[in-house]
From TrEMBL:
This is 2OG-Fe(II) oxygenase. Transmembrane segments: none annotated. One of its GO terms (molecular function) is oxidoreductase activity. Keywords: Oxidoreductase.
Amino acid sequence: MDAPADFIEVYSAALDAVTCDAIVARMRASDALSPGQVGGGVYPELKRSRDLSISDRADWADVAQTLNVAVYAGLLAYLRRYPQALVAPLMLQQPDGQGGLRRLSAGDIAALDDRALGQLARTCLRPGAINLQWYRAGEGGYPYWHCELFPRAADCETLHRHLLWTVYLNDGFSAGETEFLFQQRKVAPRTGDLLLAPTAFTHTHRGNRPEGGDKFIATSWILFQRAEALYPA
């Protein structure tokens, strides 16, 4: 009997090592990094890092595009394994050819080719803001057990988060894993690997302190489209 799914997926070499090295070099040279925030505030006892949000920066647009392309490929693979990520929350329908609508099943999603699945994914989901993070050896980390889904902003943007993702930009250090509490699983950073997992409390996690070398990652979320886009008047 297969082991129960933990909904934590790691896709090896989602980004090539040369590209990862180039991003790390640009991070090291940047004077725009600032102390990492937790829920909009700086709490170094919870998270100690140097961060750079790049989605609204023209000088980092190429990196944001490269990361989003890599994550998009992983997302399609994730939706094929877990089509319920689309059909369970959204009750999707399509024309039945007879003037009516037919409810889509998980099997329908899994059977779509990449083009059709991609179109459906883009209709339902959108990329979040990308944050580059630098954790220094022996001191940096995100030891606070946390999840990614919480009520904060007036526009409820943080409640639209559906999946979290991390691209590990380097390795060559010990520890520094992404550790999931309830799944009792540690994901060791490997250059270019992509991690995808749900955002809710069921996947409470933390970032362990790297030892023997600095750790660099890119992180963000896959969000639902806003209601006005999903359910137009």
